[in-house]
Structure formats: C-alpha cells, structure tokens
Design a protein that fits this description.
It contains 7 helices and 4 strands, in the order αααααββαββα. With 177 residues, the protein is of the alpha+beta class. It has a 4-stranded antiparallel sheet with strand order 1-2-4-3. The longest helix has 15 residues. Bound molecules: zinc ion. Zinc ion binds next to loops.
Length: 177
C-alpha cells in the first residue's frame, strides 16, 4: 500500500475528474480551457513521479530500484511504467520507443479521460497530455513535449501520445498540420 500522505496523491472518483474537466471546457474559451487542463495535468507530474519511485520500491517491481526512477534499465522501465499507470487507474498503458524518429510512444487503451461523458469528436486528453509531459520530463531530465496523435473518440479504443524534445515535437506538429 502506497503511503498517499507522502506522495501527495488522493483517490478521486473518475466521475469527479470528468465533471471538472467538462466544466472547464464548457466555461472557458477553447484555447484557455485546453491550456488550463494541460497545466492541471502538468502540475501533478512531480507527485506522480514520486509515487512511481515509491511504488517501484514497495511492490518489488524492480529487483533493485535505483534512487532515481529515471535510471531504471529500459527493458524494465517500459513494463513497469505501464503497470504503474494501469494500477493507478489511468488505462492500459504501453510504452515504446521509436529510435529512428527520436520519439517515445505512449499508447493508452481505455484512457479514463478519453471516455469522458459528453466528449465530442475532436476532443483530446488534455490532462493526460500535461501529466505525461511533466512525468516523462522528470524521467528524462529535460523538458519533454507531448503530442496526442490519436484519441479514441469513435471507433478507436486507443489514445497515442508521442513524446520527445521540443525540436522533434515541433517538427512532428508541423508534419501533422
Ligand atoms: Zn485521448
């Protein structure tokens, strides 16, 4: 059992988060709402990173967890981070890397945010985008930009996030437009 007082995490019903999310989207101009939700996700990144380190130590997930979770060997890191986010209720998370493109890929199946009630086509997982940026920024040790390239509105069941440094992600962004 993770000591939530140390990790600064609190168990909040997904329905509550969805309600807050919908309220922000409904009450602000679209750009401002998206920024606010991303910043809210980003603000939690440090706490989630700390919780990940504690989870590694407490679950025995890693035989010898390094003092810094970012120093986990890559073959342990992917599966561990996937289990951590799944256990936290985020969805089924799969981490991979595309070395040729210089990006990491996070696929989230059944992301809590994507199945938000009343989400309309074209919406995206803004809180998750912000959280992933902060969390993987701590892992990487430099600012990580995140671009959600697929969101599971409609038929798809998966959200895909590309992660990389700002230069790479600006290039990806231009490519997509
Ligand atoms: Zn999504």
């Amino acid at each position: 059992m993770t000591d939530s007082s140390r990790t600064q995490l609190v168990g909040v019903a997904v329905a509550t988060l969805r309600e807050l999310r919908s309220a922000v989207l409904a009450s602000s101009a679209p750009d401002a709402a998206v920024s606010a939700l991303r910043e809210a996700g980003f603000a939690g990144g440090d706490s989630v990173y700390t919780a990940f380190g504690q989870w590694l130590a407490e679950t025995g997930e890693s035989a010898s967890p390094p003092p810094d979770a970012g120093d986990l060997p890559i073959d342990e890191f992917g599966p561990s981070v996937g289990r951590f986010f799944r256990d936290a209720g985020w969805g089924d998370v799969l981490f991979s890397e595309d070395e040729a493109e210089g990006v990491a890929i996070v696929d989230v199946t059944s992301c809590w945010e994507a199945t938000a009630e009343g989400s309309s086509a074209g919406q995206a997982c803004h809180i998750t985008t912000g959280l992933l940026s902060a969390f993987f920024g701590r892992i990487a040790g430099y600012p990580v930009a995140v671009l959600e390239t697929e969101c599971c509105d409609g038929d798809g069941s998966r959200c895909r996030f590309l992660l990389g440094n700002a230069d790479v992600m600006n290039y990806k962004w231009e490519e997509m437009r």
